Each structure stands twice: as C-alpha cells, then as structure tokens.
Amino acid sequence: MISIAINGVCGRMGSSIAALVAEDKNLKLVAALEREEHPYIGKDLGSIIGQNQNGIIISNELKNSPDVLIDFSSPDSTLARLKTCTENRIAVVIGTTGLDDKQMEQVNKASGGIACLVSPNMSIGVNLLFSLVEIISKVLGEKSDIEIVEAHHRFKKDAPSGTALKIAEKICNVTGQKMDDVIIYGRKGITGERPQGQICIHSIRSGDIVGEHTVIFGNIGERLELVHKAQTRDSFAMGAIRAAKFLAGKSPGLYKMEDVLRELY
C-alpha cells in the first residue's frame, strides 16, 4: 500500500484528490496539509470533503514520512514542502501552476535527491494533446498561424494557464523557436498583418469552467483544431493519483506525465 500526503488539501484539486484516494484500496492517506492560517486547520478532513470523519486532521506540519506527497497549492507553499520532502526522502508530485524559472531551478535541484514529477496538467487527455501538438507541429508548425485559447473558472489566479504555456513550449521545441521571441498574449489596436511564426495565447476567465484548451493551426483555405475540454476535476485528480502510484519507489530524478503514460499504455 502506498501512503499519500496532500498539500493544498482544501483547494478544489486537493479535495478531489483526497476523495479519490479514500476510495482506492491501494492507497492510504496519512497527511492532509494546508497553510498555517487556513480556517480548516485542526478539523477532520472527512467532514470537509463530504465523508465521515476519518481521523485525518488538517495540519500545517508534515509529521510523518509518506511515500509520496501530492501538491496542488501555491508556488511558495510548494517550495516549502519540497524542502521538507527533500530532507525526508519523500517523492513529490507537483501540479502547482505559476512556478517561475527560478522556482523550477529549485525543483530541478531537489530532483537530484528525490523523485519529482512536475506537470501543469495531470489529465491523461491533456497529455495526449501535448503529444498530438508535437506531431502536428512537425508538419504544420512553421507554416501555420498558431493560436492557443484557454478557458478556466473565475477563481483561477494565474494566466495564461500552465497547460497553455506547455503547449506553446512543445510547439517552440519542435519548430526551433524561442518562446520569448514569438509568443504574444492577446491583441489590441492596430496590430498590422500577422507575422510568420507568431504564437498568440488567449485567456478566458468565466463562471465555473473547469478547463478548456484549443490549439488552432490556421492556413489559407483550411485550419486544424485540437480541443480538450474537462467536464470535472476528477480527470486531473485521477491523473495525479496515477502519477503518485508511478512515482512511489522510483529513483531520484525529474519525471513527466509522459513517463506515466508510457508505463500505463
């Protein structure tokens, strides 16, 4: 049985993961973590996620050593937990978005001592989308007008989404472009003709949209669109759980959801 801790357990993703972990006979939830000032600190997790009390008390401190910590919180919180995990040799699944380059350097450094899996989106469907983007970019990437449109709920704090940025990164890697050189974010005013190679990312924040991503490869006379729509957060939560099962017992290193897909399929 794999023991699991969840950081950001009271958030939308954290609570979804906790509920699914409780239903999995191969997993045992041993720690539910939140920021120190969170109003649910000291409460039984079961009562928070709509289940019977389960004896797991929401805390700010990781008092034991689970096999894997799943983290969907904030960049600062993630790095603080990463330090604890490094010191205690705990594998980490990181789904937190908004990590900047310096923060990712710290994750890379930590992966020298523990197994770390980082993905802006744990959904199996989205990670298949990443693969399709790479395949299509090899043929159309340098010839097409590429637009990325992402839509999320009104409560999402960062924009564009980590998934949209990952899509852009995949395209740039295939086409040999630098993201800073070709990506723009929305348009306004008299922009002139669209320059070749430009990639534009548009962000929508509205209502309770779970997550939608569209990648458009436009050419004169035709266009190709790739679309992924998440109906519930369970798709992300199930992907995170698959990632945790994959990571348990793995050697130190930096892993991706692509590694999980290869093992599953």
From TrEMBL:
Its EC number is 1.17.1.8. It holds the Pfam family DapB_N. Keywords: Amino-acid biosynthesis, Cytoplasm, Diaminopimelate biosynthesis, Lysine biosynthesis, NAD, NADP, Oxidoreductase. Residues 2-122 form the Dihydrodipicolinate reductase N-terminal domain. Residues 125-261 form the Dihydrodipicolinate reductase C-terminal domain. Pathway: Amino-acid biosynthesis; L-lysine biosynthesis via DAP pathway; (S)-tetrahydrodipicolinate from L-aspartate: step 4/4. Belongs to the DapB family. This is 4-hydroxy-tetrahydrodipicolinate reductase.
